[in-house]
Amino acid sequence: MRLVLLGPPGAGKGTQARMLESKLDAPQVASGDLLRTAVKNRTALGVEAQRYMDKGALVPDELVLKLIEERLNQPDARVGFILDGFPRNVPQAETLARVLDGYGKKLDKVVALMVPDAEIVKRISGRRTCRNCGAMYHLIYDPPRNPGVCNECRGELYQREDDAEETVRMRLKVYAESTRPLLEHYGRLGLLAEIDGIGATGEIERRILRVLGRDGAAAKGGS
Ligand code: AP5
Fold first, then answer.
1. Is ligand 1 within 6 A of the CB of residue 121?
2. Considering 2, 71, 123, 127, which one is annotated as catalytic?
3. Which fold has domain 2-26+79-115+165-221?
4. Residue 51 has what pLDDT?
5. Mutate to test the pocket of ligand 1, among 84, 92, 129, 141 (most ligand atoms within 8 A of CB)
6. How far is the CA of 12 from the centre of ligand 1 (A)?
7. Domain boundaries, the chain
8. Is 40 annotated as catalytic?
9. Which pLDDT score, from 0 to 100, does residue 171 have?
10. How do strand 109-114 and strand 192-196 relate by DSSP bridges?
């Protein structure tokens, strides 16, 4: 399965991608996570990318494409992937299509999670992420058992720097200007399914599996 998850910041792309990995037998490939790792490791690319991420702007295409191409070339992602946060604009979508074409492959589906801005602000302000394993929580919707501590690995939970209110406003503006046009782009290609992103995470997962024709996978996992 070669799937793209689209949606505004905080729509639940990362949450769903992680949940779907085992059911679709495909790894999550998250451009934001790849960039944050490069920033943490202080690579030249990471240092350059951070200047844009801190402002909530898009990182220049050539930097992101380098990371994504490297990741898609790894054996697990050659078989399939769940892209989360990429592509982010029409030129990135066109490059992705060219890269896949080079392997004789195509995208199977693009699923857009539709979530209104007011809900996004609530989701982002309550998000906490594990510094160690990347597990995600929400202070109200999905709190950790012990405040500030990851249920999975006992790592420290932190709030992303780009989740500050002003930066979130900028990220929403960038989404409206650069990323939303992808809905039309993929709609024209007949690949798009828009789904309601409001509801319990298990219910949203079932909606995604339904549009992928994988309802059986939902029943098997029982989520
Ligand atoms: P990135 O990391 O991709 O961030 P984003 O797209 O803004 O998305 P988020 O990670 O904020 O949200 P999400 O949709 O994954 O939601 P989540 O599941 O976490 O990008 C960060 C930056 O990197 C960009 O601003 C840009 O600078 C750069 N970048 C990345 N990719 C790029 C690219 N391709 N080109 C150029 N630049 C790029 O959920 C959010 C919260 O809600 C969590 O707390 C979660 O627990 C909760 N939640 C999830 N689902 C539900 C639900 N159903 N009900 C209630 N709460 C829920």
1. no
2. 127
3. Rossmann fold (3.40.50)
4. 96
5. 141
6. 7
7. 2-26+79-115+165-221
8. no
9. 93
10. parallel
Q: What is the predicted pLDDT for the residue at 139?
A: 93
Catalytic residue among 13, 23, 71, 123: 13
**Per-residue pLDDT tens digits for 89-125:** 999 999 999 999 998 999 999 999 999 988 998 899 8
Active site residue 88: yes
Residue stretches of the chain with pLDDT short of 70: 217-223
The whole model's pTM is what?
0.93
Strands 192-196 and 136-138: unpaired
pLDDT, position 118 = 87
| DSSP assignments along 20-74, one per residue | HHHHHT--EEEHHHHHHHHHHTT-HHHHHHHHHHTTTPPPPHHHHHHHHHHHHTS
* Confidence at residue 154, expressed as pLDDT on a 0 to 100 scale: 97
Q: What is the pLDDT of residue 182?
A: 98
Q: Enumerate the β-bridge partners of residue 156.
A: 149
For tokens 């299509």, name the residue.
97
Is position 207 annotated as part of the catalytic site?
Answer: no
55 catalytic residue (yes or no): no
Q: Which atom from ligand 1 is nearest to the alpha carbon of 36?
A: 23
> Active-site residue 13, yes or no?
yes
Query: Among 71, 89, 67, which Cα is nearest to 81's?
Result: 71
- pLDDT in the model for residue 215: 83
Regarding the beta carbon of 86 and ligand 1, being less than 6 Å apart is answered yes
